[in-house]
Protein 1
Amino acid sequence: MSALKPSLKAVGRLFLLIVLPILFVKYFNQYFSYLGVSLREYSLPIILTGVIYIAFRFLEEYHKNPKYKMVFSGIALTMLLVWTYYLLNRGVFTINLKSAGVTVYYYPLLMIFIILILLRYPESFMRYYLELRKYDQRKKPQNSGLKS
Amino acid sequence: MAKKLKVAIKAYSILLTLAKIGVIAIILLAAYSFAVEDVKIVNVGKPFVTYEGSKIIINIPVTIKNYGFYNITNLKINYEINNKTSQFINGSSLIGSIPTDSIDTFDVPIAIDFEKIYKEEYPGLYHFYNRDTLYANFSVSLKYMLGLVDISINMNHTFDWIPPIESTHIYPPEDVHMNSSLYFYIPYEIKTASYLSGSAEILGEIKGNGEKYGNFNTSLTLGTFYKGKIKVHINSEAMHYLITHSMPLKMVGNISLLGFSIPFQKTYHWGAPLDNLTYRVFNNGTLYYSFTDSAPYPLSMNVTKIYYYKGSEVGRDSSLYNVNPGEHVEKYEKLEITKPIDKIKIIFYEENTGFRYEEVINL
């Protein structure tokens, strides 16, 4: 029963983080000649990092122990970081129109996104640190009750 | 302590969310500007030509509207023009910035450095005389969205290279005149590229059989289809030879254009009016001479024979006749003199052109 909510969230993430971007690129490839990368080249790292992210986010949400949650959250955030890097195509996108090729370089913007993700590490750490303290406090009386 | 940490996490989360919203807002505002065409190229005008030393600058006026949320900065144009084998022209031009809420028209200059082409192609100077297909790659780069995004637009275009000298043609010599010297006019046509203006000088020499026979000079108007006549002066030493000898003559010269001397060479056929002149006096007192009028004009010949004895003129007679172009003349003329003679001077005089040719026969 407790796995239902994380599972639904994982399905939602799968759709949002993997299916939707790939469909978007596929749509673009039909209308413009290419985005600078092939669909296969673009999709593979997104699927890999996306699946790992979804799996660790599932584990983070499913697990009770905040210590594990913290670890899973850290791994998930790292994967999200890599996923973002590949989703934004390493900071360059090329669209080939009929008469012109438009290349957009947005590496500084990509860096801002990555910094924003990096800033989520302390948030996650602090949140789970707080939960861990509560978790330990809850566990202590249980242990002392068992001893008595 | 835990409560304080909880508040801190909350505040941190809020700040982080606000930062995310801010970044997304920045992106959406930029995307909106392009989507509703607040930022777009409004017009590409008719190119016009300016000059800068040996450079011809083709300016293309471009109007860009920037009603978007951000300034366009670092607007730069790069171009590379190649033909099938090598790079022909390349260059770049920094246009600058277009602030938000403005429409700016600027000229995109494409500089054609003729000095560079001249140095690379001399003496053949292929692109000064010949058309070519050129492949141009234009690249427009700019910074947008507070300098966070660089946009580069690449365009390929194929166009025809029009050489400065598009075509030249010369016609057979006309208006041959001779008094103290021989001179004539060579009609010519020259088409120069419409991007040129002003005038050019043509200077050169007439050569035949490896020798210099004369010289010429003229000036022409550039940027149009020009028809003119080149006045050719023949040296006095070569004058008599050319009256009796048809041959290919070479015009070897230079066209002074854009500050350069562009060599050219044209060959035309010189048709001599007394071509292959031969003469002989027979023992029976008959003068024989023959020639062909290889010139493109008819001759009104006045042939005078002056008879001498011991250095003094003892008599003369003359004959008049017309010769058509291409006509072969063979004359047997009885020497109308009863006195003794030891020398005959034959003077061939053409009344229309005024050319005069003398031969002396010692008996």
Protein 2
Amino acid sequence: MVEYFLCMVLFCLGLYAILIKRNLIKIIIGLAIMEYAMNLFFILLGYKKGATVPIFSSLTEPHPEVMVDPVAQAMVVANVVIGLAVTFILVIIAILIYEKYGTFDIRDVNKLKG
Amino acid sequence: MLTLFIIIPLFGAFVIFLVGKYSKNISYFMGWIVPAFLSVLALSLVGTKETLTYQIGGWVQPLGITLVGDGLSLFFLPVINIIVFAAAVFSIPYIEKYTSKWIYFALFLVMQASMNAVVLTGDIFNLFIWIEVGGLASYALVCYKVEPEALESSFKYAVLNSVGLLFVLFGIGLLYAYTSTLNMAEIGRILHERPNLKLVGFVTVLFFTGFGLKSAIVPFHSWLPDAHSSAPSPVSALLSGVLIKSLGIYTLLRIMFNVFGFNLYISKLFIFLGLLSIITGGILAIYQKDMKRLLAYSTISQVGYIIFSFGLGTPLGMFAGFFHLVNHAAAKSLLFLTSGAVLHVTGEREMGKLGGLREKMPVTAFTSMVGSMSVSGVPPFGGFWSKLVIIIAAVQAREFLGASVAVGISIVTLAYYLKLQKNVFFGELKPVWNNIKEAPWMMCFSMILLAILCIGLGALLLPGVRAVFITPAVNVLAGGMQYCNAVLRI
């Protein structure tokens, strides 16, 4: 139970960084932390104590009951790829913003209002 | 058959990535032929009686990913593909002045593939993946111009939407932990057999946050005016016309009505958020000086109408919601395209600096008039009939407050559209604009196409047409849990 709790603490830390921090790069790091917390959550959902990797070593005696859930791990792999793409595009936008505005501070990046 | 809607645009995007660098004509050609072909295909599927399903890779349900084409999906497909087609034809002259046009069209087709896939998929994690893919393409397209405002709005859009989608992922994780499946029909069936109100309540809130951000209902609307006003105009037309509807409203409807089952709390939430959006969007739109920003706030207000009428929960309310959704998709895309034509010709989007363009750009002025009148609800355009049905449905459902708000804000809507028309197309022609010409013929073609749609969509009210286009979608929503039985074929 305590690991789920810690996972949510990590999630909230990332959310805190996004809401409070004023540096674009720190916001991106906050988003990455939230993504990792979510991945950890999925791994915890599929975890079983003392279980093995979900690979069938013999077809005559399969033991699916002593394996961790592979679906959750597959979802984590998909989510890592998506997270990579989002982080990639955010970093590129942040670099371009730095070129145009000369700063990473969101208080100075404020041409749009309302 | 259903897979074609996903494979063809992805294949088109792949071809553009391979050869677009060397020949821009191929990317132009792929850019319009793919949506045109898919529009015809989608229209040919309309009126299918039974629920179409397709198992990807041949895995049996509920193990593999299922594609589901029922009334609701088949209602959304033609809307998406026709609007994408109009926007793609419009883009060809519009992006002439920018560099790397092939990337633009490749992203355009990826976005189309993701919208088609979202409305077709029957797997909840697959739904999440396609929403992220569509989101990624749209973040890149919003900052395509690489201007300071575009970059700023794209960053805001990307961060807000990614956070919202992480909440959705959290909800998916909780649902998976309880039901041990990702198939939406199977989740619905298990939740029906073993109800768990605490879980469903919490997940509803998480999904409202994520999909509410996508569909820009009011507490989550702040990214929309920035992103819409600084994106290239065909992209704003696509974002406002179909992206927020297929990625936001469709997913909300599918999950709330068919998977969780509609109840009184969800109904009240829809009505409350809808009314809040109607009022906030409508009032903020009056104060805007920027043409595209005005249209963006108007989108928030009209999405509020759609959410409100679905929240009524009666078959008439659902019919009104779908009817208004189609009308708004056509009219708002048309308005963004006309604003794009004005921007292309004059390079100006402050309404105060324009004026009298009616003499120089008759086609743009006329089509913009049609779009404005349709959104603000002037007979005989489609928008009038859909707003009328929304108000009748609200009165029948005894939501008198909602009905009066809907009537009041539709007057406000008329006011700000008249302001737009007066400042841009009527009045004195300023001497600066003496040398401008009408927009290129490709732009005029797509504007006229959408204008004809705006006028013709009123015909959806006729019983025969309604039975083919909208009634199957209403039946799916009103049927609620029957979706699960139809997909699983129990």
Protein 3
Amino acid sequence: MNDNTAAPPDKKPVRRRKLELDPRLAAYTGVWVFVEHERGLVHPVSRELLGEGRKLADILGVELAGVVLAAPGDVARGFCDEAISYGADLCYLVEDPVLAEYRNQPYTAGMTGLVNAYQPEILLLGATTLGRDLAGSVATTLRTGLTADCTELNIDLENRSLAATRPTFGGSLLCTIVTRNYRPQMATVRPRVMAMPEPDTTRTGRIVEHSLGLVESDIATKLLEFIPDDRRDKANLPFADIIVAGGRGLKRPENFQMIWDLAKVLGAEVGATRPVVQAGWVSADRQVGQSGKTVRPNLYIAVGISGAIQHRVGMEASDVIVAVNEDPNAPIFDFATYGIVGNAIQIVPALTNAFRQHLTTARLAG
Amino acid sequence: MHTVVCIKQVPDSAQIRVHPVTNTIMRQGVPAIVNPYDLYALEEALRLKDRYGGRITVLCMGPPQAEAALRKALSFGADDAILLTDRAFAGADTLATSYALAAAIARIREDMPVDLVFAGKQTIDGDTAQVGPGIATRLGLQLLTYVSAVGEVDPENRRIIVQRRAEGGVQVLETALPCLITVLEGLNEMRFATMADMFRAARHPLTVWDREAAGIEDITKIGLKGSPTVVSKVFAPRPRTTRAELIEAQSGQPNDLADTLLAKLFTKHPQLGRQIVRRSS
């Protein structure tokens, strides 16, 4: 009863032998990426997955396919073209009016229908609310293995299996999970973990159409309304280029204001650690880490953050990490790019001033 | 209305430590708690019972000591508690777990039809969010995940309206009963159990089902055997290899430290420097 994670690793070392894949399994070939879209926009995680799927398909020597389930129209065709430009060789397209908005039942039917008809060996989805809802139902319908919320994907060449790595126990350990005797091998992957590939609009590929075979009266769930998030005050941490984040080292809630001040000068988003969110200094949508957001900015300034593993897993993919901490032995200095050992309450305002001056000068210089 | 609430007993992840040498979880002394997300599910079920009446059955799969999680649920006001426990369930992944729980719910509804199944959005130890969708799929229930608010229920016409968290907003969905709902944190606030409630819960009879009692005949569908996924490796996160370059200034003054850092950032990372300038203008 471990949800994939608590089983002990095999006690004996796994015998390394070349396995002949069961012909029933060998019939499954190709890597698929589900192209998630909502309100007419493709979710960025799908593009990241197409980049990652391209690598896996090349290692296996197979084709990469995008899967688009959508209402009929130019928009759906556009999603297919986009998938191809991001690396797919072909795109499976199920067009039907009942697929206009995401609902579990018709999307599960569309996806399982495609899998049964065209038999991919690997199926990847984003670990979003939509992707995880769909993946759980599809894997259960197909009676196959699904690994949730992965942060790394590899191919074990000995038996062509997908080795999916995910954090477990709050990020304190990683475990690699394989699905040896079932196909397709399914995984959901966290947004912003895989690198965003560059699209190539000169790429061409084919579109394979498939029908759904459902009508609206078959579907019990109806969408009454969609209430879009009010974006004005919402943190959009996963896609921020620069993040200034504060932790318990700031000591008092009023000191958190200096994080906002530095962020304002830099045009940055504000992030925080779990203890600070739990103490109510900032809202929960700003939490970075295992139980919060995974971020990948160009610059991450961590102030008064010790660098505990739960926080680290959410931000260590940042390009440049600057850490300000009073404790020279804080774990954050083990993986930050630059470190300043000192009192954050004095250093952060100095940084804000220095950036403000530098940027004013740079602007005047044009 | 008859509601089944699925709960799990989990180690309190905030108190888990990893052995520095062996990379194994040090479970000793780590308290077991009810998965926090499941308590929101239970409270939501209790609120529906307050509004519409009916019964609540809590279902928990786990080792015998998971009884404590069920007693806790009883103290808050659940009517019946079923512990699904059998060594044959050990090592189950999410597919095998959903098989066993779905079988148990099918067994429950032989005695009394089930209108609603509630669960937390995910557990804090597995974090997969897969068992809820798995149960719904197996039982043919309408599935509503990441629900942030439960609205009107119409027991006569067997309809329910909920709000569901989507990526760019909230979906307002209407569906048919029976359905399975997984709830987000924060959609309600758990009620308190009084001392009297706890005494009552401690004396409340508990139903314990093993594999056979739950009506499971096919042992290839449960436990390790019924699990397509295999854990092939457990390891500690790979450290980012380089230690931070420490910024120092002769004076040690904050202003000088800040200037030294900026000089580094803008000369060593020209692209980042340009980006910072562009954003601010």
Protein 4
Amino acid sequence: MSLSDPVRFPRVRARAILGSRPFLTVLLVAAVWIAASFAKPGFGAFGHLRYLFELGAVVGLVAIGQTFVVIAGGIDLSVGAIITVSAVGAPLVAIPGDGSGAFAILAILAAATAIGFLNGLGVALLRAHPMIMTLAMATFLQGLLILIAGGSAVSAQNPLLEWLGDARPGGVPAGVIVWIFASALALAALHATPFGARVFALGANPLASTLSGIDARATTIAVYAISGFASGVTGLLLLGMNGQGYVGIGDPYLLSSIAAVVLGGTSILGGAGTYAGTIPGAILLVTITALITVVNASPGWRSILFGALVLALLLLSGREARRR
Amino acid sequence: MSAAAETGARLYFAVQRRRNRDARGLLLVAAAFLALYAYLFPGLLSVGGFAKFSQSWLPLALVSMAQAIIMIAGGVSLAIGAMVSLGAVIAATSMAGPLGVAGGAALVMIVGLAVGAACGAIVVRLGLPAIVVTLAASFIVGGAALLILPRPGGAIPAWLSDLLAGDTPVAAALLVAVVVLWKSYLATPIGLSLYSAGENPVAAYRAGAPVDAARIAAYAASGLLSTCAGLFVAAQTGSGDPVIGEAFTLNSIAAAVLGGVGFLGGRGAMRGAIAGSLLLSVMINVMYFLGFPPVAHYIAQGLIIVGAVALPQFTGRRSGA
């Protein structure tokens, strides 16, 4: 504990300087929304914006884990596979006496966290490169999925998940509420706890932080476990919104999660960034996707537009200062 | 003059020895798998069997080289798979048309070079992180492939398919030719600067190496290799498929890392990446031969990749990181 206080003070000052990056992303979102609502009358309607936030919650939730991992200097390429495993697995672990479906949710979250924990073990103890470890995990999970689900879609019979996907207490979708709570937790953990300080230190310089007495292994394992948990929550939310889980349901979210993190100004090299930037980053991404859908182009053009727009946005906000 | 040449030669062989040493463990594992495969499938030792094996290996070897070049230059590419698809659809749509085989092949190569160079220019000149640029590029390139050929189709002239993927080991000869080309590339000023540009761009720049040119050229060469792999895949299947390359992105990274190519640039050698792709390729072949269900392929592949990467941890050789 005595370590945390001296570490915390300069970090908050550094964050104030970096604060312009998340802010820039918010400005970008605002600009895109204003332009879009002029070009497309229905865009600015409350229902449509609420829908964007609902989609943004999915990207934002998975990006929580990705933000932790990237700040700690790693990358998690298995989030898509973990989402799929959660969405496909939840209906399969349901037990008869479990009326509310809480057991299935807890079991899936535990499994997703365990997968992330294994990723962390591989990176921290086997010293496999994060990209390789998580890619191999994704490959492994892909095989496992075919084994347990046989490739067919599975429907959820889970009241809690259905509520999560459909309910709108006070007009706010349940998924967005989950996202708000999770965001508050993530921001607090990153910027106001010793653990968050350790994550930043580890990403800035693993050797120096180890020499300074930080348990690099435990911290690494923890960030991957967080990523697994966040992906699990995302998978459950997707299942609730779709009503069905199928192999490949999580695939689009791997790229979205990384793009949201980088658009939000977090350094892909680790050690700098904040989840506060990832939030507008996620909303920006789903806005782009929605706009491209509106244009009604062929899949090829849609893909080209998405890639080109992400690239253009990166030029505006994602410039990486030369380090090393 | 002769003293300098002698020092140069000594340095050259010292570097080569170090690169060999790094790849030794991997070569042993690959040789063991190869021996197992030859034991299970004695036909491998015939000309036809060897031809078939080298054909299944060549695309993976090409994309692993494509990935390794970029990683040595200090980046990573997530667009390899999309580039393979692009090469395949361009080949399948142009070769049967007025351009002919030669024109189609030239078009595949030019597009590969141009798209690769464009990615490299964005990464190097604009200072964006390679992983994100190539991620975005994979969408753009994949979309372009879908535009050219929305669904599997097109055609490759039958004689070309027979030549590249027939009963003669043309694929193995092509691989040798590519390795020779790589060695000559390394002997050019641009190629010579590749390692130093990846290891320490600032120091290389101060020492007078053309750092930016070397890194952009690495992306261009990588794009060329990827689209050529696509051409070969199209020749193998006789048609084009806009998503056929997807699996190559992950496998290329896996093979390069198995081969000891480092993510931070300037580390590893092409022989390692090629050996890594050999290991992956033999592994897949052995599992097919043993009749493993497709499920087991994924699971075993994940386990073996992690195992091979983690192995040095248990054999006592500590990496400097």
